Amino acid sequence: MREMLAGNISRYRKGLGLTQEALADKLGVTFQAVSKWETGQTMPDTALLPELARALRVSVDKLFGYAAYHSGTTFYENAYRGDEGYYWGVAPSQMCLKVLSLLPPGKQLKVLDIGCGEGQNAVFFARCGYDVSAFDISVAGLEKAKRLAGEAGVHVNFFKADVWDYRLDMNVDVLFSSGVLHCIKPELRDEIMANYKAHVSERGIAALQAFVEKPFIAAPPEREEHHYPFRSGQLFTYFHDWHIENCEERIFDCDSSGVPHRHADNLLFARKV
Ligand SMILES: C[S@@+](CC[C@H](N)C(=O)[O-])C[C@H]1O[C@@H](n2cnc3c(N)ncnc32)[C@H](O)[C@@H]1O
């Protein structure tokens, strides 16, 4: 949490073009205090948090990485609402099986599912014996995910977070994400991927899927507010210094939302060496 807060203070301050001195002046503290917050040596006093958030023009939640950038209701928030079934079904993705073969849960390995939706993959990992945390921006998705975990009799640490703001501050053994990385706006991508990479344990695995742009493939029917497909091969390039277990580019048919369409994606399994 400390590292996340530190990074966010620095990021939002720089985003506003404020120096550490200027922010310190607004808050009536020394610039050394701001510097220490930003390096994680100390944390701001609790009583100062609302003022700090105001000065950085964000909410306190957002400072801690737990708030949404969306003002309205997202496509998926609506899609996940209601009791009639699961939008993505309850069967785990094939990606989960590959993770199992690459890093079987001999000891309690930590998995993070980024943008877990209704939780079918996170719950599968928990059933296999992994120690699973999973986040999504959708409250309805998380409610369904918790229900699914309850029905399976497993515990998953589900929490609400925005992929734009959330940063890892402890290591995981498996970094997992399916169908979500395209939601990260391009200017944040390098920094977020660097944070993810830095927080995977030695010999840990990144199992990631990202949509890529192809001129001959139309935007999907799920009209997401933020849709920034990767360039072909870009996902692999981020992991050029890891051992690539498998990488492929795929074009496939999909009928989510009941409208037949096509996707292009990059699928990566890489091991930190
Ligand atoms: C295509 S779905 C994939 C869901 C799940 N990973 C799966 O494989 O079924 C995309 C997910 O990304 C989530 N999402 C979109 N923007 C997000 C953001 N900024 N932060 C966190 N999750 C986000 C949506 O709520 C949705 O659950």
Average pLDDT confidence is 90
Can you count the helices?
11
In CATH, the architecture of the largest domain is: 3-Layer(aba) Sandwich
Main-sheet strand order equals: 3-2-1-4-5-7-6
Ligands bound to this protein structure: S-adenosylmethionine
Count every beta strand, where a strand is a DSSP E run of 2 or more residues: 7
| Strand residue content | 15-25%
Would you tell me the structural class of the helices and strands?
alpha/beta
What is the molecular shape? globular
Main pleated sheet: 7 strands, mixed
What is the radius of gyration? 19 Å
The CATH H-level superfamily of the largest domain is Vaccinia Virus protein VP39
Question: Any idea of the CATH topology of the largest domain?
Answer: Rossmann fold
Please give the oligomerization state of what you see.
single chain
CATH class of the largest domain: Alpha Beta
The H/E string reads HHHHHHHEHEHEEHEHEE
Taking pLDDT < 50 over at least 5 consecutive residues as the criterion, the unreliable ranges are none
How far from one another are the termini? 26 Å
How are the SSEs ordered, and which strands pair?
Layout: H1 2-15, H2 20-27, H3 31-39, H4 49-55, H5 60-63, H6 75-80, H7 94-102, E1 110-114, H8 120-127, E2 131-136, H9 139-152, E3 157-160, E4 172-178, H10 186-198, E5 200-211, H11 234-238, E6 243-254, E7 261-271
Parallel strand pairs: 1-2, 1-4, 2-3, 4-5
Antiparallel strand pairs: 5-7, 6-7
Helix pairs in contact: 1-3, 2-3, 8-9
Bound molecules: S-adenosylmethionine.
Residues 74, 76, 88, 93, 115-117, 121, 136-138, 141, 162-164, 178-180, 183 line the site of S-adenosylmethionine.
